[in-house]
Amino acid sequence: MNLTSPKVIKEICAQFGFGFSKGLGQNFLLDANVLEQIAEAAGDVDAVIEIGPGFGVLTRELAKAYETVLSIEIDQRLYPILDYTLSDCPNVEIIPGDVMKLDISELISKKLDKKRISVAANLPYYITTPILTMLIESRLPFENIVVMIQKEVAQRICAKPGSKDYGAISVLCQYYTNPELLCVVPAGSFLPPPKVDSAVLRMQVLPEPKVHTENEALFFRVVKAAFSQRRKTLLNCLSNNFPLDKNTLTDCLEGIGIQPTIRGEKLGLEEFASITKALQSIL
Ligand code: SAM
Fold first, then answer.
1. Model-level pTM?
2. In the prediction, which pLDDT does 1 show?
3. Phi first, then psi: what are they for 230, rounded to 5°?
4. Residues sharing a CB contact under 8 Å with residue 281, sequence separation 6 or more, in sequence order
5. Are 26 and 124 in contact (CB under 8 A)?
């Protein structure tokens, strides 16, 4: 069954009376090379958790390459279609539900115990950042998280300190993973085409975060504060977000060799970790 053919997709739509839901981000991928690339990027694992199978085009590719595929889908109208399109893929199980509400940790312990697991998905755009944040912060034992997302979001995630795209999402993703933009995918490669171009991003999950901090909650409070007002200095951002006066903060930053007048977007992970350590001792 060739689910990359617009003709086949339209026939299935007609057969099942299915119409695409814009609200659920239903833009189906048509490029066979990109599908292969996503499946390959999931790496040397036994199982893949897919988010949002749609008609199952990526699911079929994953089923060819991996022992087990669990595919989480929210839209009930797709279940009979997936029964049909995946009828020859016995290693795929559709998990009904909203990925943001499912207990993925329980799913893994019930169905994928002791397996090496990656996540692969052509994500629905309306909820990309919450899904990525949830997956990364869950600290579940994924090897790779491979996702098709809006190109600009992928660029922000991979951005380095000092570039205009660098922000809190870059720090979060680079703290827990090695992110890499694998390819750009034009809007015309989807049915229906979205308004923006997309990119495939692979995040190789690190066994330990890239920098050491004793207080992760404070580390991310510092990051959030540093990026809270992009045109303000680090000193102003911190003083607006922590109950400390500017003199104390200036001494604290200068004590660790960081200019209070620097902008947050110039700071790397190591610097955020040393600010966290210094603040922890005076808060
Ligand atoms: N995998 C297919 C492909 O590559 O063509 C479809 C991808 S489409 C961009 C996104 C899919 O995610 C749709 O099937 C949509 O119904 C599903 N979806 C949207 N929100 C979801 C959620 N909260 N939980 C699980 N699936 C969701």
1. 0.96
2. 86
3. -60, -30
4. none
5. yes
